[in-house]
Design brief:
Layout (H helix, E strand, L loop, with lengths): L36 E5 L4 E7 L2 E6 L2 E7 L9 H4 L4 H4 L5 E5 L5 H9 L4 E6 L2 H10 L8 E5 L2 H7 L4 E6 L15 H9 L1 E13 L7 H13 L2 E6 L9 E8 L16 E3 L5
Parallel strand pairs: 5-6, 5-8, 6-7, 8-9
Antiparallel strand pairs: 1-2, 2-3, 3-4, 9-11, 10-11, 10-12
Helix pairs in contact: 6-7
C-alpha cells in the first residue's frame, strides 16, 4: 500500500436486512506510476481494487473477481469471463439475461458491448460491490442493464421475467459456490424462470475430484434431474484435483456432440459424468 488517501465521494446502498456495510476508500492513487489502488470494507470482508499492467483488478480478500482492461472495457481479462459467450453457439444471441454475482462486472459489461439489443439484469448481494463496479470498472448505466441489490435466489424468485440465459457466477469468499445455489430448490427455480430453449450457465469454482469437489458433484447431480442437455467446460492444463473454474451449460434441448461445440479460449468442452 502506498499510504496516500484520496477524497472520494461514494453513495452507499444498503440492501434490506443488511447492516454494517461501509464504503471506506484508502490508498486511491500511488506515486511512481504504479497506478490506482483502493481498499473498501464490503459486507463480507475487504474489497481491493488495483491497477496491474494495464488491467484494473478486483479482489475479495486474495481472490480475483475480474477486472477492466484500461482502454478496452469490452474485452475480458480472463478466459472464464469470455466462456459464457458460448451461449451464442449453443443457441443464439440471448435477449433477456440474468447474472447472479457482479464482481467487477466483466460478464454483464462484455455482453452489453457485444449484443446491442440485449437486456441484462444483475443480482448482487453486497451494495459496496455495486458501487465499486460503477466507480472503478465502467459498469454501463442505462435501460439495457439493471443492477438489483439483494440475494440472488430472492431476486430470481421475485423476477417477473423469463430469461434466455441465467448466469450463476457467485462464490463464497473464494471457496466455491454458496450452498444455497447447490440446493434442489435453486435449480428448480432457475429452470422455471427460463424461456423455452433457455439455458442455465454456472461457474463452479473447485476441483473435479477429491473431498473438496463435493460442491460440484452436488450441483451436477441436482442439475441432471432437470437438464438432460449438459456441457462441462474445464481447463485442459489443470490437474483434476486442482482448484479451477468449471463452467456448466445446462438446457433441455437435444445434446450436441461435444466435438461439434466450439471450445472457448482456455477451455475444453466435455460431457459431465452421469451422477
Amino acid at each position: 500500500m502506498c499510504g496516500k488517501v484520496s477524497h472520494l465521494r461514494l453513495q452507499l446502498y444498503v440492501a434490506p436486512g443488511m447492516s454494517g456495510a461501509t464504503v471506506r476508500p484508502s490508498c486511491i492513487s500511488c506515486p511512481g506510476g504504479m497506478g490506482m489502488e483502493a481498499v473498501y470494507q464490503g459486507a463480507f470482508g475487504p474489497i481491493r481494487v488495483r491497477d496491474v499492467l494495464g488491467v484494473r483488478r478486483l479482489y475479495f480478500g486474495d481472490m480475483y473477481q475480474g477486472g477492466l482492461r484500461l482502454g478496452a472495457p469490452y474485452a475480458w481479462t480472463a478466459p472464464a469471463f469470455g466462456a459464457f459467450h458460448l451461449i451464442t453457439a449453443l443457441r443464439r444471441v440471448p435477449e433477456q439475461v440474468l447474472v447472479i454475482g457482479l464482481g467487477a462486472g466483466e460478464i454483464p459489461r462484455s455482453f452489453w458491448y457485444a449484443y446491442p439489443a440485449i437486456r441484462i439484469r444483475v443480482a448482487e448481494i453486497d451494495p459496496v460491490v455495486v458501487q465499486v463496479a460503477r466507480q472503478h470498472f465502467e459498469l454501463p448505466d442505462g435501460d439495457r442493464l439493471e443492477v438489483v441489490v439483494g440475494d440472488g435466489v430472492e431476486v430470481l424468485r421475485q423476477s417477473p421475467e423469463l430469461y434466455d440465459l441465467i448466469i450463476l457466477d457467485a462464490n463464497d469468499s473464494g471457496i466455491g459456490m454458496p450452498a444455497q445455489f447447490r440446493e434442489r430448490g435453486f435449480v428448480e427455480l432457475a429452470a422455471s424462470r427460463l424461456q423455452s430453449g433457455g439455458m442455465l450457465a454456472a461457474n463452479v469454482l473447485g476441483p473435479l475430484v477429491g473431498p473438496e469437489s463435493g460442491g460440484l458433484r452436488t450441483f451436477e447431480a441436482e442439475a441432471a434431474r432437470l437438464f438432460p442437455e449438459r456441457y462441462r467446460l474445464t481447463s485442459p492444463g489443470a490437474r483434476p484435483e486442482q482448484y479451477q473454474n468449471v463452467i456448466l451449460f445446462l438446457g433441455t434441448g437435444p445434446q450436441i456432440p461435444v466435438d461439434q461445440v466450439p471450445a472457448p479460449t482456455g477451455f475444453q468442452v466435455v460431457l459431465p459424468p452421469v451422477p
